[in-house]
Amino acid sequence: MNVEYALEQLKNNGFKLTDKREFILNLFAENKRYMSAKEVMELLKMNIPGLSYDTIYRNLALFTTLNILESTDLEGEKKFRLTCSGSKHHHHLICLSCNKTKHVDECPMTSITLNSDDFEIVDHKFEIYGYCKECQHNSKS
């Protein structure tokens, strides 16, 4: 997802297009990785005087509700990234060091057979954690 499309989603859903929201979205677009609310706050506090955690959390929650951001739990903390562009179903490899992601087009759900008539699957989440090539190299240096 790009920032222009995200801002359009906000507008189409009746939300104001504020400088703070645009700064937050641009931050995610530039970093292309999962970030915590604390990281967002640290990276934006110099550009936005008076920015509060409440503003960050409220906007991250809004963006997640509107499917602008996706979230995951890493190291016991909720982290966010821009929702992937395109509609093709996929999963992610997630680096535990830098939180960058890589698409995995295969889905393990295709090999799971449920013999249960009393349960309907409506969604699933599959993430693989490890270390990207760059972080592996940096840890060996």
Low-confidence stretches: none
CATH architecture term of the largest domain = Orthogonal Bundle
Relative helix content? 25-40%
CATH class of the largest domain: Mainly Alpha
Strand order of the largest sheet: 1-3-2
The fraction of residues assigned to DSSP E strands is 15-25%
SS elements, strand count: 6
Please provide the ordered H/E string of secondary-structure elements: HHEHHEEEEEH
Instruction: State the separation between the terminal residues, measured CA to CA.
Output: 35 Å
Give average pLDDT, whole number.
86
What features would you describe in this structure?
One of its GO terms (biological process) is negative regulation of DNA-templated transcription. By secondary structure, this protein is of the alpha+beta class. It has 2 domains: 3-82, Orthogonal Bundle (Arc Repressor Mutant, subunit A), CATH 1.10.10; 91-140, 2-Layer Sandwich (Dna Ligase, domain 1). It contains 5 helices and 6 strands. The chain has a 3-stranded antiparallel β-sheet with strand order 1-3-2. 17% of the residues are buried.
Which SSEs are present, and which pair or pack?
Elements: H1 3-12, H2 19-31, E1 35-36, H3 37-44, H4 53-65, E2 69-74, E3 77-82, E4 91-95, E5 101-104, E6 127-130, H5 133-140
Parallel strand pairs: 4-6
Antiparallel strand pairs: 1-3, 2-3, 4-5
Helix pairs in contact: 3-4
Subcellular location: Cytoplasm
Family: Belongs to the Fur family.
Main location: cytoplasm
